């Protein structure tokens, strides 16, 4: 990708500028500009490999050497901020090396399409890239910094996704086959996230099975009996903002056109989804930053009625717009979606690890039953 090459090339040049006294000299051309280009290309492969393998500390040292030579070097100052961002990301999230090769290829291909400004790819990228977690920030930030371009707007919109927010809690479902990492959307569903983290810290999910798996729909877990019929003894309130989800504008006819199903009455076809669901008893909270049911979304299961969720959750295989406004989305898979896709009934969660959480007590507010 062009902008990744620019990163590598720039770091290569700084490495040579700051290390001429400690590294073997590179053969120089009689013409200074030609000689500089020779050094530039010869060091590119080394610096590129250094950055690609996640050795950001070494890259930072190269940048600092340049700044010691020229403290006002604006380009070096800019790259210093980007390398520092990469270091912060690396400290809080899996590096590319921990993703499957296929996931990395898919993410880089989407970013390349986004960089080239292909409108047909932007919507797909906006829905898909957050599923690769914090590492994509390093690659998206240069795009977002462009001025007055559709690419910059799209990249910035992706960067604003809570799955890429460094302050979002993150957890890991440990299975026998591998790990499923998830970012939790505390700003979108604070009580639901508190409920999940509280349960995880108590070891509630240890040994529980994915008791319900429907191919090309979702995989569900979190029920004590493993059959989906047992109750938890409590429930929590739904946390959804219908307006943020666009349900105040979408009609029954709109949803039917997307998903099909039984014929609608004329009245239901004209009504907004928000009005339809409110007639069914669902209530909404205006201040929440609710997220839709996209591929990889983690959502609270319920008893098919308002305010009835507790311990069970499900992960979407595909986009499920008919669930928006009826179930609380509280997270997103950021690594391990291949395990979700190949999930089988009765596959068990060995444990849930808390990778990062905010500095406060997580204790859910429960409803009386």
Topology:
Blueprint: H1 2-18, H2 32-52, H3 56-69, H4 74-92, H5 101-115, H6 119-128, H7 136-144, H8 150-159, E1 170-175, E2 178-184, H9 190-201, E3 212-214, E4 218-221, H10 252-259, H11 266-270, H12 273-279, E5 297-300, E6 313-316, E7 329-335, H13 337-341, E8 349-356
Antiparallel strand pairs: 1-2, 1-8, 2-7, 3-4, 4-6, 5-6, 5-7
Helix pairs in contact: 1-2, 1-3, 3-4, 4-7, 5-6, 6-8, 7-8
What's the structural domain tally?
3
Number of strands: 8
Q: Which percent range fits the helix content?
A: 40-55%
The low-pLDDT segments are 1-31, 33-48
CATH topology term of the largest domain? Cyclophilin
Cα-atom radius of gyration: 24 Å
CATH class categorisation of the largest domain: Mainly Beta
Q: Give the overall shape.
A: globular
What proportion strand?
5-15%
CATH-defined architecture of the largest domain:
Beta Barrel
Supply the CATH superfamily name of the largest domain: Cyclophilin-like
> Within the largest sheet, what's the order of strands?
3-4-6-5-7-2-1-8
The helix-strand sequence is HHHHHHHHEEHEEHHHEEEHE
What's the number of helices?
13
The helix/strand class is alpha+beta
Main sheet, how many strands, which sense, barrel? 8 strands, antiparallel
Q: Overall mean pLDDT score?
A: 80
Distance between the termini: 56 Å
């Amino acid at each position: 990708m062009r902008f990744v090459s620019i990163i590598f090339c720039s770091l290569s040049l700084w490495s040579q500028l700051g290390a001429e006294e400690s590294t073997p000299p590179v053969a120089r051309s009689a013409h200074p500009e030609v000689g500089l280009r020779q050094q530039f290309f010869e060091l590119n492969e080394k610096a590129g490999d250094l950055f690609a393998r996640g050795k950001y500390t070494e890259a930072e040292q190269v940048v600092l050497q340049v700044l010691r030579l020229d403290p006002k070097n604006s380009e070096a100052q800019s790259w210093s901020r980007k390398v520092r961002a990469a270091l912060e990301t690396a400290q809080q999230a899996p590096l590319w090396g921990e993703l499957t090769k296929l996931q990395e290829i898919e993410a880089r291909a989407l970013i390349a399409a986004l960089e080239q400004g292909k409108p047909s790819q932007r919507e797909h990228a906006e829905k898909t890239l957050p599923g690769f977690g914090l590492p994509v920030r390093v690659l998206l930030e240069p795009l977002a910094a462009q001025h007055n371009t559709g690419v910059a707007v799209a990249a910035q919109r992706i960067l604003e996704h809570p799955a890429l927010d460094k302050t979002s809690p993150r957890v890991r479902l440990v299975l026998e086959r591998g790990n499923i990492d998830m970012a939790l959307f505390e700003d979108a569903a604070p009580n639901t996230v508190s409920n999940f983290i509280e349960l995880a810290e108590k070891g509630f999910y240890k040994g529980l099975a994915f008791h319900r798996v429907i191919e090309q729909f979702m995989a569900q877990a979190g029920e004590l009996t493993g059959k989906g019929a047992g109750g938890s003894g409590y429930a929590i309130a739904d946390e959804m903002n219908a307006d943020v989800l666009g349900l105040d504008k979408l009609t029954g006819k709109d949803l039917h056109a997307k998903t099909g199903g039984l014929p609608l009455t004329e009245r239901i076809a004209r009504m907004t989804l928000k009005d339809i669901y409110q007639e069914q008893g669902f209530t909404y909270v205006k201040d929440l930053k609710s997220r839709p049911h996209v591929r990889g979304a983690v959502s609270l299961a319920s008893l098919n009625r308002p305010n009835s969720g507790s311990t069970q959750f499900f992960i979407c295989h595909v986009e499920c717009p008919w669930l928006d406004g009826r179930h609380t989305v509280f997270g997103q898979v950021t690594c391990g979606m291949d395990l979700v896709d190949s999930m089988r009934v009765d596959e068990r969660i060995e444990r849930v690890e808390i990778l990062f959480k905010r500095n406060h007590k997580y204790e859910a507010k429960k409803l009386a039953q």
